[in-house]
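User: Hi! I'm working on a homework problem where we have to compare a predicted structure to a textbook description. Could you give me the structure for the chain below?
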Amino acid sequence: MSHATKNLELVSVTKRYGDAVAVDEISHRFSPGSYACLLGPSGCGKSSTLRMIAGHESTTEGAILLGGQDISHLPPAKRGTAMMFQNYALFPHLSVIENVAFSLKIAGVGRRERHAKATEMLDLVDLAKLSGRLPDQLSGGQQQRVALARALITRPQVLLLDEPLSALDPFLRVRMRGELRRLQRELGITFVHVTHGQDEALSLADEIVVMNAARIEQAGPAREVFNAPKTDFVARFIGNHNVVALPQGAFAIRSDAVELTEQVSGAIEAVVTQIEYQGTHVAVTSRMSGDQNVIALIPDHLFFEHPTNPGDHVGLTWDETKMHKLNG
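Assistant: Happy to help. Predicted structure tokens:
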């Protein structure tokens, strides 16, 4: 299916609510058949962007193209996109199979055909055996898979997911991440997934689009965005980076690249302020001159060979090649 997947592209898309600008002239071309995450803090414009792609919000300016065709004036059902909502929005009085088949029923597809297609989708999400149940007889994870099957039955070119994992407990969230990734690969269609969780974005996405204050701050392959953040905001938001101001400019340094030493020449002097045990690693926060906090992520066995405590004076070192220059 992937060879026929159409390009999704945003061209100078803007959304205003009165005087407030929710999305400010963003342009981005999604790689066809990829798993993309729109990542950013609350209020950055990511959900408004998703809703404009879906057709649940109108664009104030700009165009949304799918396969080169401007779809921004089409109703949601005619766009070639499907959206899975955060609250799943299942019909409580309809069985699982009827929920999944609902859009086909509206489109006038006969009962036998729509049930056959719905069963196929339920097989895909491993729920065919529960097809006769009502939504309130299902767990949160099962409800979510019904919502996924219902979105996918229309055979969309693009599946839009609005914080789909936020209602699930941490264990289930990790399992569903694997499920979403598997489905996306099997179907070969473009997934656009909104989240404010950087670990979620990194674990799922081929490409990450980081949004901040209604604009796209940085976009690219997940590994590149993590390893080479372009701005102070991206480095801090993606996490596991220190942003330090040095005489030659601002730099991002990954926490796992920072080493602690006894104070020796060549090291930056700092005072330990906080120690947090994280299982495989210990996060040691220390303050260097200019009131700058730096976190060193140290493998737990190394830390406990030479433990430090808050108040200790230490030296910070890192490989110069691991420093990444930030713009602006």
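For your comparison, note the following. The mean pLDDT is 93. Residues 2-227 form a domain with the Rossmann fold fold (CATH 3.40.50.300). Good luck with the assignment!
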